[in-house]
Amino acid sequence: MAGTAVTPTRMVLNQLKGRLKTARRGHKLLKDKRDELMRQFMDVVKQNKALRIRVEEGLTQAFASLQVASSIMSPEMLEQALLYPRQSVELGMSFKNIMSVNVPLYSFTTRNNDPSEIYPYGFAQTSGELDDALDKLARVFEDMLELAQVEKTMQLLAEEIEKTRRRVNALEYVMIPELEGNIKYISMKLEENENATKVRLLKVKEMVLQDAHHYKQ
Amino acid sequence: MLKIAVIGGRDTVMGFKALGLDTFAAENAAEAGKLLRSLTRESEDEYAIIYIEENFAAQIQAEIDRFKDSPSPAIIVIPGREGSSGLGLQALRAAVERAVGTNILGD
User: What is this model's ipTM?
Assistant: First the structure.
């Protein structure tokens, strides 16, 4: 194409044809990858949206209960009650491969499995509202973990889709037209050379004939 | 073993402490940003998930965006005591826009 200098030879033509073939195949593959990624992404987005709404609702409720508890109990008491957690959470992480994107999978284990064991305080000096708040918080926490996983997955997929989309577009609108243009240019140039040779040969033949026999056509 | 951190106001993180998460109280967004930096730097991958309160997150968005493309840690915005301001859903919309090019969620 204009701007890039290509030598119009048969060898370069063959090279370009090979590259065009590869580019076309790559384009098709990347396009398929993009479509599949997009399909997965839309699922994840839907999941994320639902979870996000659920978590935000759950947290708002939990905080509201906590607010009630803190208005009943003195701040010092409240802090004391929550200061030493009996529960601890350990997080395990593994990776799942979605279309060559590594997304995290979390698994968590709590030290105390009994749900009634989450309260880090005796019941004598605290109000029931605090129990209620912690209970709600513990329940919403499971959704929060899932949200973390889904949201991270979504971000990573979004990045990969963006990259893939750019590549597809670069191939489709830059690489392939450029290669096609170059190929056209070379084949036209070669044809022109061929015609020039032919005409020259005819001319030479005519001159030679005239020289030998004073022959005129 | 990996851990989970919560960054937020004192009142917000209090409840999470009882659940056994590592909580870090911050007074303002600048402090929250400092905490976030030290948590992500400290030792590698110690914290796999960091929850951060919305009203802080809004002001240190650039810090948070740095981790968008790395598989770990996941930084998740959670609403604070005042309720949700929609920042979480906004992040979702941003991701969709990034992937698709336009917002196709229709909201």
Answer: 0.86
